[in-house]
Design goal:
222 residues; alpha/beta; 9-stranded mixed β-sheet; globular
Length: 222
């Protein structure tokens, strides 16, 4: 069984880390259920284990946290749904790459409920939306924007950190970093793409697609 935890308002980042650390230990010990936690953070930047200091363009703009997850710099803030996944990867096959692919497929299935086609690109972590309405990039490639970031950490085969999906954040806030170290492509959101989607709508779609893609187990309410 998977507990779904939804927190209204803005959750302090260090508070979220404390909760995840404790819950992961409990899951690994077999004393707590797996958990998917949906929340929003105040504006902040996080640095993954591959972050390069030169990609932090405006270090004084928002607080910066060392996340110890995979990946580089990313932004979290109001209007972005953060999805922390505290799941037993061991019972899902002990295959980290497969688990990440499942997370990507979950995001893509969720976006599909709103008529969007998400894409995975080699060498570019996250989920991308093609933008044929925009000019080609500087290298002549079709324009694409990132709509979701993915970065996880494992402890005793239990995952934490997870996914962020842009619903209606202030996209200008991403300008303080080079998101995930990628300069050629931009970022977008559901609302930026013209979809009148709110956080509650996204939450319903996430829950509906979870069991089909992620399994095993049936989500239960917190």
């Amino acid at each position: 069984m998977v507990e779904w935890k939804i927190t209204e308002g803005l959750t302090d980042y260090t508070e979220a880390l404390t909760f995840m650390e404790a819950r992961v230990a409990e899951i690994a010990a077999g004393t707590a259920e797996e958990c998917v936690w949906l929340l929003e953070h105040p504006p902040l930047y996080t640095a993954g284990t591959s972050a390069r200091i030169e990609d932090l363009k405006d270090p004084d703009r928002f607080p910066v946290f060392e996340a110890k997850r995979g990946g580089q710099y990313t932004y979290h803030g109001p209007g972005q749904r953060v999805v922390y996944v505290m799941l037993d990867v061991g019972k899902r096959g002990h295959d980290v790459r497969c688990f990440v692919r499942d997370l990507e497929a979950w995001v893509i299935a969720t976006l599909g409920e709103f008529g969007l086609t998400g894409h995975i690109r080699d060498g570019r972590v996250g989920v991308w939306i093609e933008r044929p309405d925009r000019p080609l990039t500087a290298s002549g490639k079709p324009a694409e924007d990132k709509i979701a970031a993915i970065g996880i950490r494992l402890r005793k085969w239990v995952s934490f950190h997870g996914i962020s999906i842009n619903v209606e954040p202030d996209l200008e806030h991403f300008a303080g970093i080079v998101p995930c170290g990628i300069t050629e492509y931009g970022v977008t959101s559901l609302v930026d793409l013209g979809l009148p989607v709110g956080m509650d709508d996204l939450d319903v779609a996430l829950r509906r697609s979870f069991d089909t893609v992620m399994g095993p187990g049936q989500p239960v309410s917190a």
